[in-house]
Amino acid sequence: MSDLAELAARLCERLRSAGLAVGADRAARFAKAVMLVSPQRTRELYLCALATLTSSPADAQVLASVFATVFDAPDVGAGGAFSAGESTGPSREVRAPTAGSAVDRLATRDFGTLEPAELALLRAAMSEFRLATPLRRSRRKRVSPGGRRADLRETLRVARRTGGEPVRLRRWVSREKPRKLVVLCDISGSMEPYARALLQLLVCAAGGARAEVFTFATRLTRLTRVLQRAPSEALADAGREAPDWSGGTKIGDSLGEFLDTHGARGMARGAVVVVLSDGWETGSPERLGREMARLSRLAYRIVWANPRTASPRFRPSTGGMAAAWPYCDAVVSAHRLDAIEDLLTAIAGCSGRD
Question: Which of 106, 151, 251, 260 is most buried, judged by most C-beta within 10 A?
Answer without folding.
Answer: 251
